[in-house]
Amino acid sequence: MVQTQTSPSSTGALAGKFSKEQLQWLDKAKLFARAITPAEVIASDKENVFRRDLFEKACSAEFSFGSLPFPTTYGGAGGDYVSFSLVNEEFGRRCVPIMSSLGVHVLSQEPIYRFGNDEQKSKYLTAASTGKMLAAFGLTEPNAGSDTAAIETTARIDGSGNYVLNGTKTFITSGASAEFYIVMARLIDPADESAARSGSADGIKPRPESTKRSGQITAFIVERNFEGFAIGQKFDMLGMRGYSTCEIVFNDCLVPKENLLGAHGEGRKVALSSLAKGRVTIAAQCVGWAQGALDACLDNLQRHYRDGVITADAGGMAAKLGDLAVQTEAARVLTFQAARLIDAREPSVTVAAMAKTFASDVAMKVSTEAMNVLGMDGLNPDLLIERIFRDAKAGQIYEGTNQIQRMLIARDLLK
Ligand SMILES: Cc1cc2nc3c(=O)[nH]c(=O)nc-3n(C[C@H](O)[C@H](O)[C@H](O)COP(=O)(O)OP(=O)(O)OC[C@H]3O[C@@H](n4cnc5c(N)ncnc54)[C@H](O)[C@@H]3O)c2cc1C
């Protein structure tokens, strides 16, 4: 592996730790991100509109970000997770409007690589690699967030061996824009479903036996144009805007038997296996947000720095800047360690959880402190910092809240 001296980090703590190929991915990410004007970044956030054109550009042969960490067999770019993390850090730093959808797009291809058959791989992965199809991930439900075992969406087998899905998934990134979705549903007997639908006389629906935890959670690839699929409520969120995040609704949605992903009952395994990698992607995005917030502090403080001397009135703020830089660099080192473990085929759910938790807490902390340093400029909607501050909150919540990640880490230690 060719080592170079360049590094994405501001302090150079990771200098020499990236191969030439990995740094080429970083250069491409910079090229892509810097072609997007600040006005475009602000507009996608304000108008809450998904930039499909940018997504397609990101997946074009020039950039290939949509298939970066996958082998070349089904159109993958043959890169690795360190490179994908470099891209995500750069995208977070510059608030690239498609960042989160791109992360989920890669996250949603993972289970097809791992559990899909050849037909599924050639149909979905090839189209996903070129951006012809955008992929999304449907796990969370109104009554099943952290507790994924509480999934209520049902799947029953009809007379032809196909599946009929009923239920609602919520807060689905790219929900209103994707072409296919990895969906986790509970496999039930038709009799249980009619019991669930009819309910009791007082209107309270009983939860049939097989829709309780004992039911078999199973994964499916659901296309947007399948009969019975609908887009539900769209969310006008505080942060992470411009990702067409919404509910997706299955109303007797017909899913061909060919679209079963993995085996019956393997749904949680399918979901959780890709989330471990997804959390490293989130961690990298959070490092980018922290770096973006640090950049804003630096710009501000440089006004108080003359001929190598920090003016007296800015001394306290400079010490704060040093502290934020330490935390950002520590988050970066942990994140790239987690990515390296994936690339070494030793992925660690625990290290991924540590990286996601630490990096998202750092992003929240650094962006909050940056708002303090910037004073009224912190709230200026024409600057990136207020967007970073709003987006960073989501990093602590999605793909598993930080509280849950801490419990996973503790459980691993106690094993
Ligand atoms: C911007 C955004 C995008 C998202 N995109 C997607 C997506 O593409 N696909 C998808 O499937 N989901 C998505 N989600 C959903 C996300 O994964 C969930 O929000 C997350 O898993 C938490 O679930 P919840 O919001 O229902 O919180 P809850 O599970 O209701 O938790 C609420 C609080 O209780 C705490 N808590 C819960 N259980 C415990 C416990 N046992 N012990 C201690 N504390 C506990 C949590 O830590 C949290 O603080 C997205 C969410 C956001 C905000």
Question: How is the secondary structure organized here?
Answer:
Elements: H1 20-34, H2 38-47, H3 52-59, H4 81-93, H5 99-115, H6 118-130, E1 135-138, E2 154-157, E3 163-172, E4 180-187, H7 190-198, E5 216-223, E6 229-234, E7 246-255, E8 260-261, H8 267-302, E9 305-306, E10 309-310, H9 315-343, H10 349-374, H11 384-395, H12 402-414
Helix pairs in contact: 1-4, 4-8, 5-6, 5-8, 8-9, 8-10, 8-11, 9-10, 10-11, 10-12
Brief summary:
The protein has 415 residues and is an alpha+beta fold. It is 48% helix and 13% strand.
Structural summary, described in words:
It is built from 12 helices and 10 strands. By secondary structure, it is an alpha+beta fold. It folds into 3 domains: 111 residues, Acyl-CoA dehydrogenase/oxidase, N-terminal domain (Butyryl-Coa Dehydrogenase, subunit A, domain 1, Orthogonal Bundle); 131 residues, Butyryl-CoA Dehydrogenase, subunit A, domain 2; 145 residues, Butyryl-CoA Dehydrogenase, subunit A, domain 3 (Up-down Bundle), CATH 1.20.140.10. Strands 1, 2, 3, 4, 5, 6, 7 and 8 form an 8-stranded mixed sheet that branches. A two-stranded antiparallel sheet has the order 9-10. α9 runs antiparallel to α10 and α10 runs antiparallel to α12. The longest helix is centred in the last third of the chain and has 36 residues. It is elongated and about 80 Å long. It binds flavin-adenine dinucleotide (FAD). Flavin-adenine dinucleotide binds next to β1, β3 and α12.
